[in-house]
Design a protein that fits this description.
Layout (H helix, E strand, L loop, with lengths): L48 E10 L16 E10 L11 H8 L5 H23 L35 H18 L8 E6 L1 H10 L17 H10 L4 E6 L15 E3 L27
Parallel strand pairs: 3-4
Antiparallel strand pairs: 1-2, 3-5
Helix pairs in contact: 3-5
Length: about 290
Amino acid sequence: MANMFNSVTKVDPSFSEPDAILTTAQASGFMDLLAGRKPRVKLGNEDLFVYIPRVDIRTPIAAGQAAFNMLPSPTITTDYISTASYLLRTRAEFDHHDVNNAARWNVSLPQALTLAMRQGIFQYARTMCLYGVNAANFEGIINTSGATAVTLPPDSYGNTTIRTYDAGELALQMLQYIQNTLTSTFQLGQAIRVQMLGPQRILGQMQLTNIVQVTSYQRPGSGTATTAQVIQTVAKEFGYEIEYAYDDTLIGKGAGGTDAVIINIPEIRIPEMANINTNVFDTLQPNMKAT
């Protein structure tokens, strides 16, 4: 660890700009994948594991025109979902000589080190959220147990890259993935937020460059809208809010070194219907409102 505030020689007369040019890192949108766009702050300082109880039911029913001597009953089973918790720490060392050297560069060394440590912890927290510390334990969103991983198939012209892919077909393919996500979580018909997180070079291409080509037949956005606009417009008509966020660490994280794009529903709503509700058990309290 070193605080490198070098001595310099300047030409006189001269002017020195007081504002510094700082190294800029990407502000990751990974928190948008979480419910409420923030972590659930519940852990104690010394907690090593997190356990979430899971309750499942199976209810057989007897149907007939005569009374039964024995009736089936519900079976309720319980288990725990668990994951390890990790303590993130770093440190900073400096003395009054370092403080004085930094001051000559118009830098408050204590503040600079505080922000540097905070950024390092935040960046590693992003890594943990997306990829986990131990992928073998299904840690990280991209390694979630039961998550579906698919590879974008070639378009009708055989193109496989985001720059050459037919923009209209890409929009329909992404809408299909969104539909699959909504279907698997019983969220079709719910006015909810669907979040997409991916590298800038993927989502940026979909948002700004990939204008849907004009063809001999009519299709959404033809000649006027990009892939991302078509996705948002079609989904919005049915009450779904499609949002895009960026994280370039997903470059190369897909199958075979391809870029990965994560599609998820951060806030799951409990499916219910008025009067006869075939999902009434989900109203048992307390619950996390997510399965």
